[in-house]
Amino acid sequence: xxxxxxxxxxxxRIALTAAAEGKLADGAEHTLAxxxxxxxxxxxxxxxxxxxxxxxxxYVRPRLASIEQRHVDDAARVSEQDILAQLKxxxxxxxxxxxxxxxxxxxxxxxxxxxxxxxxxAGQECADKALATGLH
Length: 136
Description:
By secondary structure, this protein is mainly α. It is built from 7 helices and no strands.
């Protein structure tokens, strides 16, 4: 009785079973050992060693899987009010932290202190006008 069309023969089934179990086919161990020997032989030409390593690599190491890389920006999740509350809690008991922050700000942007003082004065002037006109 002939095999049905597309059915696997005995050799193919043996080869597929061995591949699924991670085993090499008959004689392949010898071939792989020969190629690895060439790749590891320091007396051979580098181009030949590299070519042998390229041939042996898929049988020795698995391919790297492609994965999706995601970057989560935690700073975008924290509100400005939360950051200010954390800063206030940090500097409340430690004047040296305030000094360090001011130095960092001045090193980053030398005009920052002038702008902050101008904003504070403008805010005070608005508050004074509001009190003078009775709006508060």
